[in-house]
Specification:
eight-stranded mixed sheet, Rossmann fold, single chain, alpha/beta
Length: 339
């Protein structure tokens, strides 16, 4: 009997392991530049290109459509396009956003950027030997002490490299990584930035889920699994603080930042939009119950919390664009993004 149970457990583990390798390695869309070029060539579209930036020892890779002629400044006005910054959920990478670079409406309106977050796609921490003379201590592990800070400033630093100056920025974040949209907002030039968090996971995880992530992240067994799956568990552990102890601080900082922006621009907003004022954070929830939980977490009506249809945002870029444009009423007329 014991032998049958043991064999059953081993068989289940083997089947599950095959499933994990299939999902996070063999079917994991981590595209090379050549593969992206071929995909877009077949559809007669301009392919986005990979670029990278180095932050605190990390090499951060991202996709950009800067080569698209629509991104060039308007010859009549000299104005550049606004920016759409895409941040994927845990376990994914920038390749999941390829449909955004194919969408003609989005490419006509935006300079689009999709980042590989730490541990995913082409973003990694190169192994280096420390000589003890570094100005800043070197990170020893990919999800080490600096990972939280670096994750927060990635949008700001990439936008700087992409020559964003006074142009409007719209950040899109999703799922377990949703609150990174609020974190990124807190680090940027706030008056021109809005973050859209689609179906964000805002509540702390169950203890069983946390223990599972810690188990998979343990070096004793992590070698059995593909990088993307292990990185997902480490990323979830990193994000747990944002949904736990750090959540109140995160929301309070966002409230303070938005209030300061509104005070500075109050005269411009007064009397406009039927009493609606500046809003910078948008929580896009899939049902009324989750909406109420977020409203309770925020504690005020300061940010926008909406119930929307549940869709796969990676394959429905037009849906995301429509939601962004619908909420431009919370932006000054002169800065509103339009089709």
């Amino acid at each position: 009997m014991l032998k049958k149970i043991t064999l059953g457990i081993l068989a289940f583990f083997f089947i599950w392991l095959v499933f994990i390798w299939t999902k996070y390695h063999f079917l994991y869309p981590s595209y090379s530049q050549e593969e992206i070029n071929n995909i877009f060539k077949k559809e007669n579209l301009k392919a986005p290109v990979y670029d990278s930036i180095h932050l605190r020892g990390y090499t951060i890779r991202y996709l950009t459509n800067r080569g698209n002629e629509n991104v060039s400044p308007n010859p009549a006005t000299g104005r550049k396009k606004p920016y759409l910054f895409l941040m994927h959920d845990s376990g994914k990478n920038s390749g999941y956003f390829l449909d955004y670079f194919k969408n003609k409406n989005i490419n006509k309106i935006f300079h689009v950027i999709a980042v590989d977050r730490i541990g995913f796609g082409g973003t990694y921490l190169p192994k280096r030997e420390s000589n003890g003379n570094e100005i800043l201590p070197m990170e020893k592990e990919e999800f080490g002490e600096k990972a939280d800070y670096v994750s927060s400033i990635i949008p700001k630093e990439i936008l700087k490299q992409e020559r964003q100056h006074i142009e409007e920025v719209r950040i899109v974040a999703n799922g377990c990584s949703g609150l990174l949209g609020a974190e990124a907002f807190n680090w940027m030039d706030l008056s021109i930035v809005k973050s859209f968090m689609f179906y964000p996971e805002t509540e702390p995880r169950f203890i069983g889920s946390v223990l599972f992530s810690k188990l998979i992240s343990n070096p004793v067994i992590s070698f059995l699994f593909p990088r993307a799956f292990v990185s997902k568990q480490k990323d979830l552990l990193l994000l747990d603080n944002m949904k736990g102890k750090g959540r109140e601080r995160l929301i309070d900082n966002a409230k303070y930042s938005e209030d300061k922006n509104f005070e500075r621009e109050e005269n411009l907003y007064s009397g406009h939009y039927g009493g609606k004022k500046l809003k910078s954070l948008f929580f896009m929830m899939s049902d009324k119950n989750k909406k109420e939980k977020v409203e309770k977490m925020i504690g005020t009506g300061q940010f926008s919390v909406q119930v929307i249809d549940k869709v796969d945002i990676y394959t429905q870029p037009q849906f995301v664009l429509d939601k962004i444009l619908e909420n431009e009423i919370y932006t000054l007329d002169i800065n509103q993004i339009k089709k």
